[in-house]
Amino acid sequence: MPAATGTYAENAGKTGARRASVGALLMLLAIMISIPAGSVDVEPIMPISPPDVDAAKVELGRKLFFDARLSQTNTEACASCHQLEKGGADGRRYPLGADARPLDFNSPSIFNAALNYRLNWRGNFHTLEEQNEAVLLDRRLMNTTWEQLLGKLRVDQDYVRAFTALYGSGPQRTHVLDALASFQRSLVTPDARFDRYLEGHRDALTPEEEQGYQLFKSYGCIACHQGRNLGGNLLQRFGVFYDPFAQRANISDADLGRYAVTRIDSDRHVFRVPSLRNVAVTAPYFHDGATASLAEAVDIMARAQLGRDLPGPDIDLIVKFLGTLTGEYQGRSLAAQIDRSKQ
To answer: Are residues 145 and 219 in the same domain?
Structure first.
């Protein structure tokens, strides 16, 4: 048997040490990005590319993603909360659960979720397969069982043929999870104007948008929102300098962040840093959908995370920059697809 990895206190200490190391790394990054423009050639953000996926698995996963039979009542599909025509979310502050009551968290966009190192607001899932299974079985979400779900799929001859062709047998638990994850890995949105800017096409941004990007870096937003997904690769406390929960009469389990999962005090109000890709078309914002205004979200984040009250004109410029992060899906502008769905 493997050796024990240490006591709870020792492990908690290691967690704290790792978080301290991450904090030191973020400080170093903030110092690096304060170096005058032109001194450093490497940008803290990287463009994303079209995914390399198995087309047949993607198509099977797409069919499953939109199939309400994956829910116990045959009324809810994965796409019910993650609507591609609404930026991969649902546009509501809270989605409704299987019991018709509002859920605890705002729906994060499914677009580019495969680029995150952790999933869900609390970052409590490491893989798409793990997260998908939890959603399927959760009593307040899809509220199904594998016996029920597989029974439905195995009487559908189209599914039986598709699974047999790809996996060598009819529908099985691991095959369903693999197909769903394959489709979700295809949901990336490359070719944002900012991606083209990073690839050397400096005219892809207007002067104001480029100025907004420079402010985004100089103010320190980039310390948490960097990498391919402009976020999604860190866990961070919401309220480093200003406590956004201080004025709330009631603190919900959702507000507690990772603490509700780990019961480690240093995880109180800690969340996975969300990606900012497509942020201009995925309102409302924050774990509780607290605001539908991107300008207000920038203002709140500046005060809570950076300890700064930003001038209105600077907020406007940063918002202009954030608008350049909207990419394309299946070769078409995601923003245009969303606008078309509203007509």
So the answer is: no
pLDDT at 110 over 90: yes
> Of 121, 156, 185, which residue is a domain's last?
185
Is residue 222 assigned to a domain?
A: yes
**Does residue 152 sit in the same domain as residue 40?**
no
Q: What is the pLDDT of residues 23-43, one digit of tens each?
A: 445 444 443 444 444 444 589
pLDDT in tens, 284-326: 999 999 999 999 999 999 999 999 999 999 999 999 999 999 9
pTM: 0.86
**Rounded to an integer, what is the distance from CA 121 to the centroid of its chain?**
8
Question: Is 258 a domain residue?
Answer: no
Q: Same domain for 226 and 84?
A: no
Answer yes or no: do 302 and 323 share one domain: yes
Same domain, 220 and 76: no
Mean pLDDT calculated for residue range 81-91: 94
